[in-house]
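Bug report (template v2)

What were you trying to do?
Predict the complex of my protein with flavin-adenine dinucleotide.

What happened?
Run completed; filing so the output is reviewed.

Input:
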Amino acid sequence: MTQSHDVVIIGAGLSGLAVAHFLTKANPGLDLLLLEHGHRAGGAVRSCHDQGYLAEWGPHGFLDNNPASRELLADLGLDRLAQKAPLTNFVRYLCHRGRLVVLPQQPQKLLATPLVSLAGKVRVLGDLFRKPLPTEQTIADWVARRFGPGLLPLADAAATGTFAGDYERLSIDAVMPGVRRLEKEHGSVLRGLLHAMREKKKKGSGEKRQLPAMTSFPGGMEQLTEILAAGKPIRFDTTVTSLRRVQRGWEVGCEGSVSFVCRRLIVALPVNAALTLLRPFGPPVNAIPEAKIATVALGFDAATAQIPYGFGYLAPEREQRFALGALFSTHMFPGRAPQGQVLLEALVGGRRHPERLDLDDATLVERVYADLRQLLHLPTPPTYSRVLRSGSGIPQLELGHLRLQQWRAALQAAQPGLFVCGFGWEGIGMNDMMQMAQATAMAITAGATDARAAAVKPVYF
Ligand SMILES: Cc1cc2nc3c(=O)[nH]c(=O)nc-3n(C[C@H](O)[C@H](O)[C@H](O)COP(=O)(O)OP(=O)(O)OC[C@H]3O[C@@H](n4cnc5c(N)ncnc54)[C@H](O)[C@@H]3O)c2cc1C
């Protein structure tokens, strides 16, 4: 059986759903079909409603400072429903020598933080005098060279909080291309930042810069993908196994001898899943590492638990903690626990400690509680616990990722009608996905033969 459609999108995760949204918005009546391996839409985005608690298997939130996501939310009417935890009111903590210390959220606050010694703060200015290196570097090497070793724990925490990754392997060029560009154009990051500030002032928007807010929804993150999926033509339980170029475009082969023909094909999958399908069309290329994490959701009696106000904390590797960090979920988004209870969601595993995910649920809960009670006042054991193991790994943009991005660009240039977006190509955050989806839809609508026009500047959560 072969059906024909103008556009086929492989994957009904956030990326595929968002491309479908932006495409149909610009081209009402477009004949498109989404093919989804699972029997639900949303992919890694999945919320857990259990005994009055609301926790997340996957993403917990994204910042509201990305134009593509803002547009998407407004289109869906979710901007009015969204729950927001503004960075102006909330802080993050860093585990430092076994205690929680407030993390500076803006560069100027670095001056006052006890997390960096006076010598370390002075060394940051070394950035003004270091020539940019042209080669791809790890985050750790780059931060140490430009700003000195004093900032390494902060960089480690940032890589842990976003990628559950290892900053000694992640590529600064792939993770923060904008910062690298600034550094190369101005000879120094600080000089580049000052230049950008002066330019903004010259343009004189007069607007006071506001810090963004962490965003979720009353029904959890899944509310976004559920609303996005509603009414979309999605064929569930359909696993794409092969792609073939045909005269009219592409033939998409699925398990069970089902196939589809389309003029334009969008592969909206995590990098490794996409490579499985796309490898035959380009030079040999390797899969990339993924980091898996488990969320350990713990409820505590609000009368006894004392949790400092804020988003949560992160623990750099040198602190040797069991959990990568924890979200103070009911501070961020009230109403996620029954009356009189608070919810914490600790994260375990990641790129450096995958072996911890082999532990059974009871041991994970025990080890996380033992870890947390050294940092927070939690005198009584949890009243509720649930371990949420995400089936999705977080793609790691490690050293060499730029070559993979070039591989994708060359593939799209050589294969008209093929568009590749999704988890891990240009970034990993939800904002990155929505931005790439919008750019892909714009490139298709403009009649571009490939998605080079869709090159994006990633935004991180
Ligand atoms: C544990 C975890 C925590 C995260 N936390 C955050 C966070 O706090 N903030 C944030 O901004 N981001 C976070 N992220 C990232 C965020 O979840 C992703 O950016 C986003 O969900 C990726 O969407 P996607 O559609 O590209 O990929 P996916 O969500 O992986 O969706 C891909 C879809 O394709 C389907 N599929 C795969 N192969 C095939 C095939 N061969 N045929 C048909 N269908 C197929 C899959 O079933 C899936 O539904 C987190 C991710 C994880 C895993």
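What did the reviewer find?
The domain at 61-66+75-88+293-389 is CATH 3.90.660.20 (Polyamine Oxidase; Chain A, domain 2). The chain has 14 helices and 21 strands.
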